[in-house]
Amino acid sequence: MSSAGDPDKADPLRRLRTLAEISTARACGFAGLATFCLMVGLSGSPPAALKAGGYCALLVVVVLLMLAQQAPLRPYKRTEIWLMLDQAERLPEAYAQGVFARVRRETFLRFAAYHAMAATLLLAAAFLIR
User: Fold this and answer.
1) Rounded to whole angstroms, how far apart are CA atoms 87 and 89?
2) For residue 66, how far is the Cα from the chain centroid?
3) How far apart are the first and last CA of the chain?
4) Rounded distance, CA 54 to CA 59, Å?
5) Angle between helices 93-129 and 46-70 (to 10 degrees)
6) pLDDT of residue 93
7) Which long-range contacts (CB under 8 A, 24 or more apart) does 96-99 make?
8) Whether the predicted pLDDT of 123 surpasses 90
9) Are 104 and 74 in contact (CB under 8 A)?
10) What distance in Å separates the CA atoms of residue 8 and residue 118, rounded to the nearest whole number?
């Protein structure tokens, strides 16, 4: 399959962002699934279910913020993004660490903002239906 039609293959930074988003979305999806299961388990008490969901979302925010803070310290070769790249797509070592750290940090912060909004909505709903 040719890479001429894939814009991500032509722009390495865009490809890194896409892979960082896939990796982070997958991890957040598993956290969301666990939160959903907890909320279903507490569905007998809607305020408790919403509050638990809000607190779980806040926990994900904290974890994502910690990951964003630690992104520059994590060796780029030990990231899932590096493993997802084809051999030909890998960046030169001279500037790979900085690029990977920046892309991962931006992605973690964006997903933390999404989860913060979800936490706000869930906790507000729990407060309103109480």
Assistant:
1) 6
2) 12
3) 56
4) 9
5) 160
6) 87
7) 97/72, 99/13, 99/16
8) yes
9) yes
10) 30
Taking only the tens place, the pLDDT of each residue in 95-122 is 899 999 999 999 999 999 999 999 999 9
**Continuous H helices in the chain:** 7-10, 12-41, 46-70, 80-84, 93-129
Burial 66-85 (b: 16+ CB within 10 A, else e): ebbeebeeeebeebebbeee
Give me the amino acid identity at 54: G
Length of the chain: 130
Output the CA angle 71-77-78, nearest 5 degrees: 65
Amino acid at 56: C
Please report how the helices 93-129 and 12-41 are oriented relative to each other, as an axis angle in degrees rounded to 10: 30
Give the predicted TM-score (pTM) of the model: 0.89
